[in-house]
């Protein structure tokens, strides 16, 4: 698949939706190839079924195999889907639950694909054995989500790019103009006008080295526009992806570290510890977190408290000056009185001369305490001199214009320092973007593998052994669907052909299975289907041991719900006609006799069994209550096995041995039901049931 439109079901419009959702065509194609059903399903107009079908179709194109290559009937697909649903119960993420649908059974002829899955499962079974607290890991996995592309960053309004070169202006405008102001200036005067309007000015070009900048501007000069990296101009853009996915990333890093401690490496080329430290430095808004830089915290403390502290110390000064004036007395000399009378001096001058030292001391003490309270540095403390009056006045008032200038300078210091931090973080983070995506996908895929491993561990399942000869044998098999119901499940041993066949038992690959109603015949058919499907996916099977010969296709026919009409009956027969010459296969049929009246059914089943028994590469189990009639209608050597009811217990419940007895036609349930009614009935009823019971015993 060279492009999205090469994939089935994807046209130009749908391809654009994929690109918009995943960020680029490469990532969109990667999502399809890795089976990211959850991610694909989030695209507008794409549902979960479409996503699953799309992934299956693409893989079918690549491998030449689809789900119908092995599962030949709707009933076999139903068993497969129920098995997958069972495994999904052990997944912790929507991603894993959806991706499990991309695992399909392969024909034995593609053992290479089965082996890939088997190796993958074995690795995850080993991982599972290394995890002491799977509940905690599962809880951590449940918090893992695919990373999202961040939305466009808001326009940066406290920064401007300035250049005097028209070519550079065009390039910079195209590259950064959507996010930041870019201006072309022709002379220092125009530059000064622009620079005074922004806290941060980035001047690009060598001519700016010769400018005589005003004192109230402090631009950052970059001489060569072609050497600029995006992280330097717009660190917010680089950081935005990590900030937008902050919680997802931190969850992934925490889990990766926990898994690494357990001996399960993250398998990504990245320093997880270094990335974790970088992520801890920013918050979900993309800003530097409090406590990461003591200088920024100190400056923020000044900015947050300078107004209230200044008001406090001005009030303190006025109170002390008021107290001073109330306690002071002034003695005027004759010359002083003459000077006042002649208007040669003012009383204020005389007052200033007498208390100026005390006034200055009060102001200086307040200034010193103010500086210490706000932990100001020397260059900042020099600016504080302009807050307080240098001459005697009362009441004392702070110079608010100087205060505002001071606050603007503090803001610029904070801004410059934060930009420097953001640049450093952006520079280091941009190398982690791809490894981080890989890490998250690795963790999500780990959940898929652990779900299969946990599923297998729940029933002590094992991987199947593949044999070259036709047949299968299982030991201590347990039907998954029954186990899920929480009922006690009797383990089953069974074999077809010569694989694991008990001694002195005819080695038939095509058998009839007889037995009592509710004795477990259907459950055993399901068990065989489950083992076949799981083994051909490469997953563990619900048995202590399974050995299985070549199977390229599975035909499963469940029990019909009643006699079929002529059209449905014809369709059913057509489906069986396709079995002849269909390669190595397993055919499982549950009470086919229900499709028509018993006499005709026995003849039809006999004919089908004859056809299948003629093929050396075919295995089949037919469940039927018509074993005797079927055998009467065929000369083929068909083995009949039976699930036998041993009798009734003390409470008159059926006692059933659910392990089939080889080469044995089992008793039917009606005989035992009559026996139960006979033993539990009254005197009148017993006479009636005795007559029925005798009919069974005489075989008439």
What is the gist of this entry?
The chain is α/β, with parallel strands linked by helices. The protein is built from 27 helices and 15 strands.
Task: Please tell me about this protein's structure.
Has ATPase and non-specific DNA-binding activities. With 700 residues, the chain is of the alpha/beta class. 52% of the residues lie in helices and 11% in strands. A 5-stranded parallel sheet has the order 10-11-12-8-13, with helices on both faces. α5 crosses α22 and α7 crosses α20. The longest helix has 34 residues, at 294-327. The two termini are 69 Å apart.
What would the keywords be for this entry?
15 strands, alpha/beta, Rossmann fold, 27 helices, single chain, 5-stranded parallel sheet, 700 residues, elongated
* Separation, N- and C-terminal Cα atoms: 69 Å
Strand order of the largest sheet: 10-11-12-8-13
Helical coverage, percent range: 40-55%
Structural class per helix/strand content? alpha/beta
Provide the CATH top-level class of the domain at 471-667: Alpha Beta
Give average pLDDT, whole number: 87
Q: Write out the CATH superfamily name of the domain at 471-667.
A: P-loop containing nucleotide triphosphate hydrolases
What's the number of helices?
Answer: 27
Beta-strand segment tally: 15
Low-confidence stretches: none
Proportion of residues in β-strands: 5-15%
Note the overall shape: elongated
The fold-level CATH name of the domain at 471-667 is Rossmann fold
Radius of gyration: 43 Å
Biggest sheet record? 5 strands, parallel
Query: Mind telling me which CATH architecture of the domain at 471-667 this is?
Result: 3-Layer(aba) Sandwich
